[in-house]
Fold AEC family transporter.
Amino acid sequence: MTAQIIATLLPVFLIAGCGTLYGRFRTPDIRGLNTLNMELFVPMLVFAVLADRQAPLAEYANLALAGAVVVLGSGLVLWPVAKWLKLEVKTFLPPMMFNNSGNMGIPLLVLAFGDQALPAAVVLFIVEMLLHFSVGLYMLSPHTPLWRLLRMPIVLASLAGLAVNLGGLPLPGWSLEALHMLGGVCIPLMLFALGVRMLDIDFGDWRTGILGAVLCPLSGLVLAMPLIWWLDLSGLQAAALWVFAALPPAVLNYLVAEQYRQEPHKVASLVLIGNLGSLVVMPLVLVLIFTHVYSPV
């Protein structure tokens, strides 16, 4: 089990570490890389996974529902905490709700459980992204039109992939292979970009950052436990939900806060210290998963 955990986490931290090391001596256009990733490589991966008829997407409906409850429920659970501690709700709650299901979640699930975990990872990623660009944007700016959601490449790729899969439209093997190859670029690129972002950690608001690093995975795991029983999730899907629930805040929270001028420096502390805290949280969660939830073959 120890070897499995090390084999899972070591590539994640090595690739992210390469990003940190490269960013220390260079100044890469990380925003340009993220734009390319989110507009091309990630949509390619999403479409390829959803369009592949070997992925029985109907079996992931309960997992998608559980993921949505974890995201929205975290906000409801932590709202009174934020009020009690006199924290700005618009600053504190979005990073607690919208986790790093892209940069860390997809690579971690694939490394931990193999390629068979990719459909579950993508389903959870899509749920988180759709909620982030609908509920999340509404939280920061209630007047943002939700029709903008339909202009996102990830949303268009998701709709197209679902249409192909559910419609039973066969795609040539060579086209799926090309899409998977292009989409495969996004996983290491996500980790590399995360590593570069780690250089921006601001310890000036370290107390709020540490609080978020504890409450973000804790709230998710507290919600995941009854959901697994209620929705009868087991095996790989239960393991995927555990990992999803324990993920740190998404880096995208910082970019959105910067765009809407919602205390971006505080959000950066929440995001980056939270991701740093995952060095402790994720090994513990993987021990729990491999011991009680899922044993990889």
